[in-house]
Amino acid sequence: MAIQRIVVQAPAKINLYLGVSLQRTLVGYHRLSTLMGTVGLYDQVTLEPSDRLSLICRPSVRTSMENNTASMAALFFAEALDRPADVAITLDKTIPAQAGLGGGSADAAAVLLGLCAAWGIDPFDPLVHGVAASVGADVPFFLTGGLALMGGAGDQLEETFSAVPFHAVLVRPGGVGVSTPRAYEAFDAHPEPAAPLEPLVDAVAAANVDAMAAACANNLEPAAFELLPATRQVAQFLSAQPGVLNALVTGSGSCVFGLCRDAGAADVAATEAARLGWWSRAVSSTPYGCRIVEDGWRALP
What we know:
single chain, alpha+beta, Ribosomal Protein S5, domain 2, Alpha-Beta Plaits, 2 domains, globular, nucleotide-binding, EC 2.7.1.148
């Protein structure tokens, strides 16, 4: 007898470009432009029918179920559909928290995608995007993934791009990571101008990875360096590694990514970073956002 469940793969992301402004959206978030790309580092999100909403996270995290983006997504979606949030959620975490890799947002998108399949909702329904944006600014991006330019608070899709294969190394220093609200507070205290976006857009359109690396930029990076100086050390380390084209903080940190000339360079840089006691992974780009890899919700009568 089949197990009645849906399993969704939730990828990490890197911000190839992040340009934050001091202007605010109507709900108070900073206006920004960001070009994000999904990479092959995944959480696994499992959904099973239940008589109530529940959440298991492995390994466990300090966030309560009420404040976890995955359970929030289920609750908000159920409320929007005027139905019970009768689902048990299990998160098997690989993407580190407070790293700028979007793990929590990806998990929320994975829950929405899985519940669309379970409850018979078109995942492209504008209602789904609205719920995603209400959970978190990055959540809508993970419903489609790939390479995309986002605006607003990061929740508004402005442009998608054809897949550009690239290799990268991710390195996160030890410690508790960087709080996104604190990073934005530090930015407000000492704002940095955003770099031009057009060179990166042109490089992505041309599928030129060397030019992409040269055009990557993040004006939130100084805030991450201030809040966790070890991120600067990681960026300097990666910049000196053979085959690493550029190194940059992703999002608000604390993870630093390096675009690499090839997969071998990414593997070597990840190995060297691990020898220094840092968390590290060699990854490749993926053209997908969250994807259902097992659907047995309707397998039982």
